[in-house]
C-alpha cells in the first residue's frame, strides 16, 4: 500500500503574492535509496534560491522547493552507515532532487549532519545551506587554514552566508583580519558582533574605504553581489589575491588579469549534483559546524519563525526575501 504525505511546491511561475504561487498536495512517500535517509521534516528555512526557482524555473509538474531542513531520521537505506533511525539531523539537500518543503524527505546521508544538540529544530534549519556555502568558500575555494594570515573583505556581510562566514572566520582563522560591508550603523554593529574587525559602507566609495584600511589591498575577497563590481575588486585586492563569488555569472574578469587575481565560483550543490568523490565532506563540515554551535562559537541567524509549515507562510517568506530587506533567515516550523 502506497503511503502519502503533504508537500508544498509550485506548478506555475507566479508572483509570491498570488495564492497559487505555492500549493499544497499529497504526494507518495518515497523509499530511501542505498545511501539515503528518510527524514520526518520538523523545520525548514527559505533561501534566495527558492525564490529564484519559483519565479522563473519550469516546474514540469509539482516542483517541491526547500534546501534547508532539520528533522528526525525515520528510515535508512541499505548502505547507510553514518546515521540510525531516531537521529536528529540537519542538512541542505541537493538542487537536483525534490526539496524539503514536505513532511517526509529523502536525502543522501553524505550531505547530512547531526543537529546541534543545543539548538531547536527551527534554529538548526536556519544553518545548513549558508554554513556549507561559507565553509566551502573559505576553506575549499580560498584555501584558508588555521595558519593563514592576511586580510579578508566580506561583501554582503549582513546576508545569510556572510553572517555565518564572519563567525567561521572569527572561530577558526585567528590570523585573518576581517573587513565587512554594511549599509548603516545598525548593520555595522551587527557584523562587528559576528566577528568583523572593521566595517565599510558599500554605498559610498568602497575602494577608498578599503584601501584606507589595507593600503596594499586585501588578500581575499568574498562577495555575494559581484555584478558590475569586478573592476572595483581589481583595485582593492592585492596582486596574487583571490576572489570567491556566490552569485550568478557570467562575469568578465579580465580586469583582474594584470594583478594575477584568481576568481573562484562557489556553489554548494556542486558536490551532491556531481556526486563527487569527496561528497562526504559536506557531512563532515556540518558535523564540525554543529560542534562549533554547541561550543558557543557559532550561533544561528534566525530572524523570524513562522508556524506552521504551510503554503501561506511559505508564500509570505518568499515575498519578504524578494523585498531584499531581510538580514537573517526566515524559518518555518511544525505541520498542522
UniProtKB/TrEMBL annotation:
Pfam families to which the protein is assigned, alphabetical: ADH_N, ADH_zinc_N_2
Keyword presence, rRNA-binding: no
InterPro entries, alphabetized: ADH-like_N, ADH_Zn_typ-1, ER, GroES-like_sf, NAD(P)-bd_dom_sf, Zinc-ADH_QOR/CCCR
Annotated SMART domains: PKS_ER (SM00829)
Gene Ontology terms, MF aspect: oxidoreductase activity; zinc ion binding
UniProt cross-references to CDD domains, sorted A to Z: AL_MDR
The keyword Transmembrane is annotated on this UniProt entry: no
Designated name of the protein: Zinc-type alcohol dehydrogenase-like protein
Species assigned in the record: Desertihabitans brevis
